[in-house]
């Protein structure tokens, strides 16, 4: 899931000609669209690449009726068993399609978010920090992000991550899904993804901004505050939206064993059907399968994304302003 980028800028002193430290708020105000896109793309790729093995574990731990050989008690045990029984590279299967989608998806996301955030903040709270503006901007940007990422990350990636997956390559998975389920399969969980990501981003942005107000009230570039606030925001949002993530995983993977046990024919579709199926198979606890792995994944994931994004935005903008001065 992608992070946001903080608050509207506060006025700051002009940039010194000698390249002295810039106020982060001043950078936010003067940063270019291209910088948002480059910083966002790098942050997205690094976030998904570094945390991919844990994401693979999360997908498996959300299985409603896992194979006895794929029943894990914790994240570390799952990773260890995957490597020992299925090969060293097994936790990374599908990482290539994720990296391919993460770059452009996050570039578009951050560009859209920054533009909307500024416009809405000027209306709702000129010169100040509007949590409502941040939440709305992030939610709208999520529509664009998920339109790019849903086929790659959700459908193809998660099928490759499942235990005993019949797919051995990205291209093979794409061809098989297209042939047997049609083009619509690549967006079957799109509405579910949005239903999960919109509240996720709203909770994420609000929590991050509240943390920043306490840890970094002057809104300067401060790596430690971005890391800590990002980790806490990711953990809170991840835990709160786990039930939706379980339903999304079921729609993406079309878990055969689970569907067969309920004598469901064809392909499961729709949020209501997914919720009903999860409840029938696992009751209320079923909605929180994999919550530990999800939180463990999201905490460093959002911390990485925030720190990398803010660093590249700060670094790239500083270079541009120094050249101009």
UniProtKB/TrEMBL annotation:
It is a multi-pass membrane protein. Solcar repeats lie at residues 31-119, 129-214, 221-315. GO terms for biological process: iron import into the mitochondrion. Its main location: mitochondrion. It catalyses: Fe(2+)(in) = Fe(2+)(out). Keywords: Ion transport, Iron, Iron transport, Membrane, Mitochondrion, Mitochondrion inner membrane, Repeat, Transmembrane, Transmembrane helix, Transport. The keyword Zinc does not apply. It is found in: Mitochondrion inner membrane. PROSITE patterns: SOLCAR. GO terms for cellular component: mitochondrial inner membrane. One of its GO terms (molecular function) is ferrous iron transmembrane transporter activity. Mitochondrial iron transporter that specifically mediates iron uptake in developing erythroid cells, thereby playing an essential role in heme biosynthesis. Belongs to the mitochondrial carrier (TC 2.A.29) family. This is Mitoferrin-1.
